[in-house]
Amino acid sequence: MVADPPLPLGRGAGGEVHKPTLDELRDRIARVLARDRTAPAPPPRQPTFLDLPFVREEKPSGPLDRLLRPTPLGHRVGAIPVWTAKTADPALLALLALDPELAGCDPKRALYLDTETTGLSGGAGTVPFLVGLGFYDEEAGRFAVEQLLLRGLGDEAPILEHLAERLERSSMIVTFNGKSFDMPLLRTRVVLNRVPKLPEPPHLDLVHVARRLHKHRLETCALVSLEERLLGRQRVGDVSGADIAAIYHHYLRSGDEASLAPIIEHNALDVISMFALVGLYGEPLDHGWADGALAPSDISAAAQVARRGGDLDRASEFARASVDRGAGALGHRALADVAKARGDKALALAEYERALELARKAPEDLGAVAEAVRLELAKLYEHHARSYERAIAVVAEGTAEQPARRAARLERLVKKRDKKPGSRARTKDTAAERLRLSAPAGWSKVRPP
Prior knowledge:
The protein is 47% helix and 11% strand. By secondary structure, the protein is an alpha+beta fold. The chain starts with 21 loop residues before the first helix and ends in an 11-residue tail after the last helix.
């Protein structure tokens, strides 16, 4: 290419600087424009599919880049077989999710969903560029993972329309934190792209189940943490979630398809892990539920969830199983809570007493559990056993309530004890008096006996 001649710039005879005239500048601009018009335009970039084996399908709304991969027969995530998801008990899943709508769903027609996005804010500027779907393929007799890739911003309509078709054929949707993030984001994209509204089948969000069962012993209930601590799989070389958006922006700028490969693999692993979690959480107890995967305390937590859901028979079954497997104080507390819900106060009192005894001996810190149990014991001692002295003793030791309420409870118990026929005078060296003397400022006064 021949370079443009330089603009005349120098010094005249008198030493003054020569500046280009307006006509000279116009001539320069004209030459540049003429050169740009005659130069051939670069060909538009076409996807090569050499690095990413996505198949492009032409849809009325635009191209859809889709990758479909079946899971291997007998595939496991750690110790949990993937196929167990298709035989999961929907009633059990509904109970653990506290969502009765899920009880009538067919797990073999569930649609699993996970998205990778350009950000985590979830606002109008956040775009899901990879939608991972999972489902059971009846013809192949195995689960499959389907991934939809957004190769260019603005081409979302085919992805959203394909997702709507999948949802329409599904009995339920399964996500991990999808109620808070994935589905609201996808609904926003539907509105912005002016495509029909997405169907809304019953939604099982596994993150809520995981928190109810494991938050008492796990620092985090992130999906990767559950894989390691429950399923027995540790990812090696997995892309960090914090890097995903930056990698996609790099792809948009450079066209480097190979850079997306770790994200695609990460997304597929997320979907497959949800297969395994549904199989784990939906396996009935008499089929070996939780063998090696769930801790005894997780089963006692499941008993508490079942009690909240109103299934006291299953709650009792879980509580008994947790005690048999060594849940200790947590298991006996669950048994006591179930007995209390059934109105069996005598059994509840015995189980709370056993729970408190084990909590005191436990090697781990069960202070919060002990305080909650002491509060229940105080109520039962007061209203069922009419043993005000024992109620005073457990309240003085500490209960799970605000200091002012605890002090008021203690004051009421002391009055009841003193009014009880045949009660004898107490000395100042009682639990109630010790609590009164050590009470922080602001507590209501406890009358000494």
